[in-house]
Amino acid sequence: MIINSPWIEGAKEFLVQNHKRYKLFIASGTPQDEIVNIASDLNIAQYFCGIYGSPRKKEELIQFIFSKNQFQKEEIIFIGDALTDYEAAKNSSVQFIGILSNNIKFPVGVQVFRNFIEISKWLPSQY
Fold it and tell me: What is the pLDDT of residue 50?
């Protein structure tokens, strides 16, 4: 069950420190009601501008976030730990950052980090 999954190092701190700086969203393959409940149970829902799940595919969720918020593609960074995350970002023409977990091998050239501590160090110089 997702709620019992371990946190990626630095993830909660990243949310607390950056939710006012960046507009954060969840686009998950987990069913919509379940991902909303999980975010609420973990006491992190307040850090997100939107929490979205299946049955819509991640690519559809990215497009929905675009249209609802009038973002430009260059304003979006999709952070994920699965190849489906990478594919959704690629198919939506948005930047992708991979989190190295679950022994996933991202394609050569994909920006990857081990945790959110590394992402936090990288983001301020980029955005």
Answer: 97
